[in-house]
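Record pair follows.
FIRST:
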Amino acid sequence: MIRKLLLGLVFLVSPLAAMKPLPESFTVVFGREESPNQVVEYVSVGCPSCHRLFKEEFSQICQKVLIPGKASWKFHLVPDDPLSCQLALTLNALEGKEQEKRNLFAEVMRQCTGDYITDIGKANHLMRDALTRNGLSTQFMDDLETIRGDERIQIILAYLTQEDAVRDVPTVEINGEIFDDMPTYRFIKRKLL
């Protein structure tokens, strides 16, 4: 009897203790959000596999899954490296400018490789251009003191300090279920089509 009661309490409390993703403003969505399937890919600018998958697989996923309206695809940055953190902050600054966010994200993923040393200049240039083009400040990219007390950094830190936050990238979540598989077209086709 007590065991059933404890299991019931765990069941009731577990959704409250589940990982909280970053707010929508820190993410970028491709496809129609009202699609019947929701895919979240957890990525990092510092992940070579994330760049390779984006370059080699994502256009086919767009053509066969997103454009026909079978799913929407959200890229959720795991901001545990400086470039991913800066990109998350830039996406947040571009809130409400969804096409600009998609364009910036796609360019960063296409032009970078996951090697911090070679990517930092390219990624910073792309982010600065997007912010400047939209009349937004680039100060947070220059001055770490400026962002130390910034509530956006606190949101990122809150995500990163969650015990069950996704850290392995790339990781894919489909309709709320997290999979260990690489988010290739073949895998997505098997799960959704």
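SECOND:
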Amino acid sequence: MASAWSFTTAQSLLTRRERTYVCIDRWWHRRYPNAVNGKAKRLDALQRPWKLHYCCRTRSVAAFLDDLALHGTHVDVRLDDEHAGFLNIAALMRAAPQAHFYCCGPKPMMAAFETAAKDAELPSAQKHVEYFQSQGDIESQGRFHVELARSGKALFIPQGKTILETLRAAGVRTTSSCEAGICGECQVKVLAGVPDHLDSVLSDAERAANRSMMICCSGSKSEKLVLDL
């Protein structure tokens, strides 16, 4: 039921100190093998335990099986047509209650992961997801004001436009990458106001704190946001 260990997910593994890392992914994209192999080798060198559950519908569409085989028992290749039923994610979570679980994939698999996490009562701090695309409706965003604290600029975000798009149109330079709320590159500190978080990067606790936001997809629940830009 799960497959595609993304660059963001893999990198986050190297900056956390938890006991075990479990990655569940589906539909591995052809550009990921070098990133996955590099991070896996790094985790091995640091002697940090990890497990990748890589699942596809059939062996014929599974990418880089030879590369994954080099990691031995660290990788569990699960093919839908060779196993009875889907991967029992909730069982994995119950078996490793202290582990951090990372998941990336299409919406049906992500929904199954979220349901499993709820059933297993996995703390939100141990659950990390990365969707293939933004989960928000960009067209419904906009119609609020943004103040840039450092530059002193004040901008109005029109409906259907993101903060990032509006900043670019105004000549404000800022970093971005995926522009879908899944990589974290456009994260900006929030100094005032209440963001409408639509990314797949921040944890539940980070969203509740409202100290930062992804300006490529997230909007505002308040009439005005003050950003550290």
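COMMENT: Residues 1-18 have pLDDT under 50 and may be disordered.
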